[in-house]
Specification:
By secondary structure, the chain is an alpha/beta fold. Helices cover 36% and strands 20% of the residues. The structure holds nicotinamide-adenine-dinucleotide. The active site is at residue 271.
């Protein structure tokens, strides 16, 4: 199934769609087609073909990085509030194309329409945030110990920034990075997941049109797009003209990127896998908690980095919670994500389905008891997709399989009797992305969000582990990578801090009172 013609028109992609294959890269405003074996692009909804493309080769990666570096040399001198104008224009175009962009996310990832629209809204939100930020890239001034001296710090543009993204947020993660990088005066080279090239092409078109509209003020081609696989990502990690590489994906990928970037003393910003837990205490509002748990565990078919994977429930309520969740999981509408009312769409591909089945098998071998779901659905769902009913299992604690992130809808429920043990369970995995506690006790809440509580980057109270807003910094600790993106002061990742000491007197006093020679 090629893309519907009205969708192609709404996304302004008619010229590219007229070609026999999708491009391998969009660099310096031109489409490039690699001489490499074609890769098919099936929709996870029903396996129908959305097109083909040839993954970008090393030569194209180099071309894109060099083009971005050249653009950066001009962009860095454009005043930041004018850089914000470009982001405003991008945000307005994304607003106008919201429905079409969301439709594309659904086709390429299988995400239900409401969540796809939420993802596009996140892009719009970060554009608004970045626009405001373009007038707030503040530094500090410091008192100097020397007379007639002043010290200050400036935040200056960094260079061309590499952005590698995962399949499950094919638009939002790019926008978190690229919109901040643009107002910070950087150019961007984006390598999206090989599974979601069309979402990237559609956004790149938005950027190109915005650059054209503002051509009098914007040096052309600040953003480059490479549609490649792991090899293209590795080439970016090694490239000396990318002082910062922001990479989102599995912990396996992050380890590789971190080592390559560190070997050339570059900076990496890593947003990696999660293994997120929520604690349900005896005082929790169970109605509220159950709604939050079902969305966090089953939403996006369990394919969010912040999806809820472990539920730690007090002994006194665990039987009730398990019974209510079993009921909820059994009745979740699973099916075609384009159909209104569907809450759980397909898994991204067959590999993902088999990884889920292997995890379920291992869990049962390790003593887990399955309460609900996990099997393939054939009836009432489009043929050719991988549809599963979300799985609910009761376990004794962090079994070996529970410690791994399985990127599918599996929720392991485990008991606790003392809050300190629950916190130990929460922290007892190698990942540290998101966590939550459901409680009406101030003491329990503070224990969880304080220094001896959850060791994650995101620690929530009475809401689930997923569904973050862009205003706060997003990211996790330990194997989740340590990076922070989006709101708060995450923009500092995309700039270099320069410390200035200014002498406005006519003598040269040295710091620390040092006397050197005649002075
Ligand atoms: P993945 O690691 O397979 O791929 C992610 C991206 O990295 C892709 O663009 C891929 O081509 C590239 N890549 C893979 N190996 C690479 C290497 N050695 N060097 C350079 N680039 C490489 O991940 P995925 O299956 O697309 O996404 C799911 C994973 O991403 C999950 O682990 C999920 O938790 C994580 N994720 C994390 C966040 C976050 O913000 N923490 C957000 C979304 C997804």
């Amino acid at each position: 199934m090629p893309l519907p013609p009205d969708l192609i028109a709404d996304l302004h992609l008619s010229d590219l769609a007229a070609e026999p294959q999708w491009p391998s890269a969009l660099v310096a405003g031109a489409a490039h087609y690699a001489d490499a074996p074609l890769r098919a692009m099936p929709s996870p909804i029903d396996g129908a073909l959305l097109g083909h493309y040839a993954p970008a080769t090393a030569g194209l990666v180099n071309h894109a990085v060099e083009a971005a570096h050249g653009a950066y040399l001009k962009w860095r001198s454009v005043p930041a509030p004018l850089r914000g104008e470009l982001v405003r224009c991008i945000g307005n175009k994304i607003r106008q194309r919201k429905a079409a962009l969301a439709q594309l996310i659904t086709l390429e990832t299988g995400k239900i329409v409401a969540e796809a629209e939420g993802e596009v809204q996140e892009c719009i939100d970060i554009c608004d945030f970045a626009l405001g930020l373009s007038r707030q890239l503040h530094g500090l001034t410091m008192a100097s110990e020397r007379p007639q001296h002043r010290m200050m710090e400036q935040w200056l543009p960094l260079g061309a920034v590499g952005v590698i993204t995962a399949f499950n947020f094919p638009m939002a993660v790019w926008s978190w990075n690229a919109m901040l990088a643009l107002v910070c005066g950087d150019a961007v080279v984006w390598k999206p997941s090989e599974k979601t090239p069309l979402c990237a092409i559609a956004l790149q078109r938005v950027v190109e049109e915005s650059v054209d509209e503002l051509s009098e003020r914007v040096p052309a081609h600040i953003c480059q797009l490479i549609l490649g696989e792991q090899a293209a990502g590795e080439r970016m990690a090694a490239h000396p003209l990318l002082p910062l590489l922001s990479a989102t994906g599995s912990t396996r990928m992050g380890r590789s990127v971190a080592q390559q970037v560190a070997a050339r003393l570059g900076r990496s910003l890593l947003e990696l896998g999660g293994n997120n837990a929520a604690i349900v205490t005896p005082s929790a509002d169970l109605e509220l908690a159950l709604r939050a748990i079902v969305f966090a565990a089953a939403g996006t078919a369990g394919q969010r980095c912040t999806s809820l994977r472990r539920l730690i429930v007090h002994d006194s309520v665990i039987d009730t919670v398990c019974a209510r969740l079993t009921q909820a999981f059994d009745s979740l509408p699973v099916g075609d994500p384009r159909v209104e009312g569907t809450l759980v769409g397909p898994l991204i591909d067959a590999d993902s389905y088999w990884a889920m089945q292997q995890a379920l098998q291992a869990a049962e071998q390790q003593g887990a008891v399955r309460l609900s779901g996990g099997g393939r659905l054939e009836d009432g769902v489009p043929a050719g997709g991988h549809y599963v009913r979300p799985a609910l299992l009761r376990v004794r604690g962090n079994l070996p399989v529970v410690r791994e992130e399985t990127f599918a809808p599996i929720l392991y429920v485990m008991p606790y009797s003392e809050l300190l043990d629950a916190i130990d369970l929460n922290n007892g995995v190698s990942q540290g992305l998101s966590s939550a506690i459901f409680t009406d006790s101030l003491r329990e809440a503070e224990a969880f969000i304080g220094p001896a509580g959850s060791d994650c980057g995101i620690v929530n109270l009475n809401i689930g582990t997923s569904g973050a807003e862009i205003g706060a910094a997003f990211g996790g600790e330990k194997d989740s990578g340590g990076g922070r993106e989006a709101g708060s002061d995450a923009w500092k990742n995309y700039m270099r801090r320069v410390s200035n000491t200014i002498n406005y007197g006519d003598s040269l006093p040295l710091a620390q009172g040092i006397r050197f020679g005649q002075g």
